[in-house]
Amino acid sequence: MNIIVCIKQVPDTTEVQINPETGTLIRDGVPSIVNPFDMYAIEEGIRLKEKFGGKVTAITMGPPQAKEAIRDAVSLGVDDGILLSDRGFAGSDTLATSYTLSRAIMKQGGYDLILCGKQASDGDTAQVGPGIAECLDIPFVAFVKKIEDIADGKARVERMMEYGHDVIETPMPVLLTVVKEINEPRLPSLRGKMRARKYEPIMMTKEDLDVDPARLGLDGSPTQVIKVFTPDVKRAGEILEGETPDEYALELKKRLKEAGFAI
Amino acid sequence: MIIYIDQEQCTGCEVCIPTCPFGAIEMREDKAYINEKCTLCGACLDACPMQAIVKKVDELPKKKETDLSLYRGVWIFAEQRKGKIQSVTYELLGEGRKLADERKEELCAVLFGHNMKDAAKELLHYGADKVFYMDDPMLEDFQDDPYSECMAQLVRQYKPEILLCGATNIGRSFIPQVAVKLETGLTADCTGFDIDPKEGNLLQTRPAFGGNIFATIATHHHRPQIATVRHKVMKPAERKDQSPGDLIEVPVPEEGKKCRTKLIERFEEIEETVNLAEADIIVSGGRGLGDPKHFDLIRDLAKALGGAVGASRATVDAGWIPYSHQVGQTGKTVCPKLYIACGISGAIQHLVGMRSSDVIVAVNRDPEAPIFKVATFGIVGDLHEIVPAMIKHFSR
Predict the structure, then answer these.
(1) Yes or no, beta carbons of B265 and A219 under 8 Å apart
(2) Which of A70, B20, B28, B169 could form a disulfide linkage to A201, CB 3.0–4.6 angstroms apart?
(3) What H or E segment, with its residue span, contains residue A120?
(4) Along the 396 residues of chain B, how does pLDDT read in single tens digits?
(5) Residue B270 in 3-state DSSP?
């Protein structure tokens, strides 16, 4: 089975701090990592390969340093990695990104399954997975928490919903986005790390792809960020006065009653 | 397009550096320099007091322009499950009405389902001028293929200017496919909308970087402008007795009846005693509890008030309480009438998930905790003493 895993290099947002003086992001020393949700896609890809045989290829789009994301995937057991890097891809929104990745996947060809994390932790859009599926005109299932079975060119998967989950049968090739409930990602093996250190990803620029230049990068992106700001969350509150816990509780009760709560 | 720094103008003041959400501006030989991490987002453009940050637009062959004036009106997708309209729909109707009035256009709801004509008519009581209703057994349960195809066809036929959909699992699954079919812009998980007074574009605001920053996004040259909207942020429309609008039954196109995937079975897990996202009162605990067993205090207070139990990410990550209780950017967004935060310092990730609550009470030992900035009423003190007193006095 040939599996493609789409990954993204993101800043480690759990490390992002706000400067209390200026209200801006402190990004010094914030490391780049593989999008945490993509780790589950990588793990699932490797597990399926271990079960059914075949090959796992990781693909990413980003600046040259996104090579490290490919190497991380290789250290975990991914066979090959492709890095799409071109100044012409800069400024891509989710539509242009979906288009570009789908064209690279088309060029690669011969895939049975495409796996993506449910969303990236920097943008949180969850749009590129379904976008790629639509560009490739293949079926799509979001929020997959379990691949129950793959047989006879069909996959049976569980899709997480607000109320529980749906069991869905889909023909292959199919694109699935996966949630963290699907597995427990492994750590890289020593051998994997050794291989990753020397691994050079397959590099592709827009010249390598059969693409319409008007659909790439900023030109191919209908949405544009016009402003970025830190949220102003202040409200005019009041610190209650009191001496003992009982006094605080009674004062709060009084205020809440005044605000219309029946307590 | 390219953004660069005019080295002649740059004074090396470093003001621009923190404005970049991608960390793409660095200092090189005492001048600012934009490196290859730049995504051309433009966040830095206004930061420079010397106007040394320059945006250069390439001369490119003109693209085929969409005639924007052909697209009119605001649409919302009315989500249903098992034939019941979901609550996010009323929030979309409330927000959609506001935007439609500002644009002086119609508000229309789109409903896909089977044997739901009465529910479709009912939407007319919530401010919709029109309801487009497609009825087919294939549309009874959500499936990506028929829903995205039907929506794309309907948009091509009637050309709305704006399309809003709940940022639910259903919305976030099929709307991106609609946007690709229509080759237009889509903004995910929005928490605020405005109309640009000059150009009339929809200004879509959404959190990014785990809620640490907000971005306002516009779709200038493509229509419709599509956005998914976070549940529990917008105020729902109220029901009116009159329903002057029209129900329009649209036949389902043949393409819209095709579906490659098959829904085999649906599992409904037992709902928690109180659904966090729908609760009127929420009592939340944070790391200040000190020990997982102290969540009992939170549960007791919630019980005394008839509310639900929430939690900060730190406590969920530490395994003190299941993820389903997590409030915040990576958990649930809540908008209760009363939110009581106990021992929660108030990281921005948490604040974005609860700050639209009507009344916020914070109990924390640290008077400098950011949670007090959003609190309506703050109590500086030890929650292990304050909360038991609250339980004692609040019990009805």
Answers:
(1) no
(2) A70
(3) none
(4) 678 899 889 999 998 888 887 788 999 989 999 987 787 777 788 888 888 998 876 544 445 567 888 999 999 999 999 999 999 999 999 999 999 999 999 999 999 999 999 999 999 999 999 999 999 999 999 999 999 999 999 999 999 999 999 999 999 999 999 999 999 999 999 999 999 999 899 999 998 876 777 889 999 999 999 999 998 889 899 999 999 999 999 999 999 999 999 999 999 875 554 578 788 899 999 999 999 999 999 999 999 998 999 999 999 989 999 888 999 887 888 889 999 999 999 988 899 889 888 899 999 999 999 999 999 999 999 999 999 999 999 875
(5) coil
Number of inter-chain CB pairs under 8 A, A vs B = 282
CA-based nearest distance B118→chain A, Å: 24
Its ipTM equals 0.90
Task: Tell me whether domains B1-60 and B276-394 share a fold.
Answer: no
Portion 239-268 of B in contact with A at CB < 8 A = 260-268
Residue bearing tokens 């939690």: B311
Range of the domain at A257: 233-263
This prediction's pTM: 0.83
Determine which of B79, B169, B201, B382 to mutate to test the interface with A (most A C-beta atoms within 10 Å).
B169
Domain segments of chain B as ranges = 1-60, 68-257, 276-394
CB contact under 8 A, A142 and B172: yes
B344, B364 in Cβ contact below 8 A?
yes
Say if residue B192 is exposed, middle or buried (CB neighbours under 10 Å; 0-12, 13-18, 19+). middle
Name the CATH topology of B68-257.
Rossmann fold (3.40.50)
Task: Please determine, looking at this structure, whether the domain spanning B276-394 carries the CATH number 3.40.50.1220.
Answer: yes
- Partner residues linked to B54 by β-bridges: B4
**Min CA distance, A183 vs chain B (Å)?**
16
CA A171, CA A140: separation in Å to the nearest integer? 10
- Please check whether residue B345 is in contact with residue B366, taking contact to mean a CB–CB distance below 8 angstroms: yes
